[in-house]
Design goal:
Blueprint (H helix, E strand, L loop, with lengths): L7 H6 L6 H7 L6 E6 L4 E6 L5 H14 L5 H5 L5 E3 L2 H9 L2 E6 L2 E6 L28 H11 L5 E8 L5 E8 L5 H12 L9 H8 L11 E3 L2 H9 L3 E5 L5 E4 L17 H31 L6 H10 L7 H21 L2 H21 L5 H14 L5 H21 L1 H17 L1 E2 L2 E2 L44
Antiparallel strand pairs: 1-2, 2-4, 3-5, 4-5, 6-7, 7-9, 8-10, 9-10, 11-12
Helix pairs in contact: 6-9, 10-14, 10-15, 12-13, 12-14, 12-15, 15-16
């Protein structure tokens, strides 16, 4: 049950010596709080039963305390599992974090018996790969840290813990590799997170919106992933990584626009195949941004660009359409987005059926009813399919929304509007930064030696140097100190 009447702000301001009376007062009206009193040992236990491991609680706390006589309690509580608490705020936070508070005479102690049941490590549903590891992060930060430690067995991997949210007290962990990561980026990330003033943070993406360089931009400025090997690779490359307790996504920074078109599969197959896949994604980016917009521009203002044979077919397909190409394209794009959103929100089996059957039925019915042309259906479908090629879901969403703006520009100003819209996107990207680093690195600033892992995937023998963006003092990627 929730505790709507707990005076959280008051408990945070209280810094006196902890006491049983004050603790019970802080958790007044919390029926899920457990208070157990043991008169024979003059002890009281306070904890939340749904946050603790009951087997561990009975084995490490209750049994030893019941077996100890009153005169033996003090030496027992002085052992390592028990930590003395002298601040009421720390005691309240400990109880809320899954620890048991023990009150003995005028002293208070905490012992960690946190045992919340967690989701097991499974395969990521949003970042699927064909080859390579199939484990993914969970909502438990401890498990996520273990998955990273399993891959980077180095004492130079450091972890910093921060807390965000006046009410939620969400734990945020910043990870970096000493002597490899740029400490300027780490200090900047710590400063931004420490300066957050908000009641609650529940997810990584909520946190990132509070620390973005340009919070009003449509483009994400921190790379997020649910794949441990991708995050471990970013750490080795000199990036700063963040984990938010309660979120299955980790973030890394600084990032660049081109990183969102990279997939783990690129490195798990032959370099020529990885290069072909990556180039295909950039081609898909061009298609999803400009294909439908070009149709609107050409059919509205530039019929001379259409070959004669295709012009006859296009004229015939648009003969019964009562709307101008701009309205026609916006209508079909909105329909596709509705089908996509419906498929995402419904259960997986039903969602797939809605997406496939709905697209076919609505498209065919729209052509037969004369509401749209069959060539536009092909154009919209090609743009929609191309948008799915982008591995990063957050970047795919940004591209989908930009497509509407380009369609409107092409419908109002023709090819000039399309080119002006694309130019505006490039100019905007040129001005973005990620933790102060250029968003278009290595194109702007021009760093051609980094292109071997941006537009192509070079053989591993050519990928020994870390990217320039990380500004690593240690240039060799595969010679880390133990």
């Amino acid at each position: 049950m929730d505790c709507p009447d707990v005076p959280v702000a008051e408990s945070n301001d209280h810094s006196g010596k902890p006491s049983l009376l004050h603790t019970l007062h802080e958790f007044d009206d919390c029926v899920d709080l457990t208070h157990r009193s043991y008169p024979e040992t003059k002890m009281d236990l306070v904890y939340f039963s749904h946050l603790v491991d009951h087997e561990k609680l009975h084995r490490e706390v209750i049994e030893p305390l019941l077996q100890a006589r009153t005169e033996e309690a003090s030496p027992l509580l002085g052992q390592s599992p028990f930590s003395s608490v002298t601040d009421a705020k720390d005691l309240i936070t400990g109880i809320l974090s899954g620890s048991v508070a023990i009150f003995y005479k005028n002293d208070a102690f905490l012992i960690d018996v946190f045992g919340l049941q967690a989701r097991t490590v499974t395969e990521s549903e949003t970042e699927s790969v064909i080859t390579g590891p199939h484990d993914a992060f969970t909502e438990q930060a401890g498990i996520n840290l273990a998955l990273i430690r399993q891959r980077i067995k180095s004492s130079h991997l450091k972890v910093i813990k921060l807390t965000v949210g006046e009410i939620t007290k969400t734990d945020v962990y910043l990870l970096y590799i000493k002597d490899i990561a740029n400490m300027d980026y780490l200090n900047e990330a710590k400063r931004r997170i420490s300066n957050i003033e908000i009641d609650a943070v529940f997810d990584t993406h909520m946190l990132l919106q509070l620390i973005d360089d340009s919070p009003y931009s449509i483009f994400p400025q921190f790379h997020t992933s649910e794949r441990p090997e991708a995050i471990a690779s970013n750490l080795v490359a000199g990036r700063i990584v963040g984990l938010v307790d309660g979120s299955p996504s980790a973030f890394s920074a600084p990032t660049s626009f081109f990183e969102y078109f990279s997939s783990s599969d690129d490195y798990n197959q032959r370099w020529l195949l990885g290069t072909a896949s990556r180039l295909l994604r950039f081609l898909a980016l061009i298609i999803t941004l400009s294909f439908t917009s070009l149709y609107v521009s050409v059919t509205t203002y530039h019929y001379e660009m259409i070959p004669e044979n295709l012009l006859l077919t296009l004229t015939e397909s648009r003969y019964k359409v009562p709307f101008p190409p701009l309205i026609e394209a916006l209508f079909m794009e909105a329909t596709i987005e509705l089908l996509r959103e419906a498929g995402a929100r419904l259960p997986s089996k039903i969602g797939q059926t809605i997406g496939i059957v709905g697209g076919i039925v609505i498209g065919q019915a729209a052509v037969q009813a004369g509401l749209t042309s069959n060539i536009l259906i092909i154009s919209v479908a090609s743009s929609a399919i191309a948008s799915f090629v982008t591995p990063a879901y957050v970047m795919s969403n940004s591209i989908r929304l930009l497509r509407f703006g380009l369609i409107i520009g092409a419908g109002l100003l023709g090819n000039f509007g399309l080119v002006a819209g694309l130019a505006a996107i490039v100019i905007h990207l040129s001005g973005l930064t990620s933790l102060g680093s250029s968003y278009l690195t290595p194109v702007a600033p021009f760093k051609p030696k980094d292109w071997k892992d941006v537009f192509i995937v070079a053989p591993f023998s050519f990928l020994t140097e870390r990217p320039t963006q990380s500004k690593s003092p240690n240039k060799v990627r595969n010679k880390m100190r133990k």
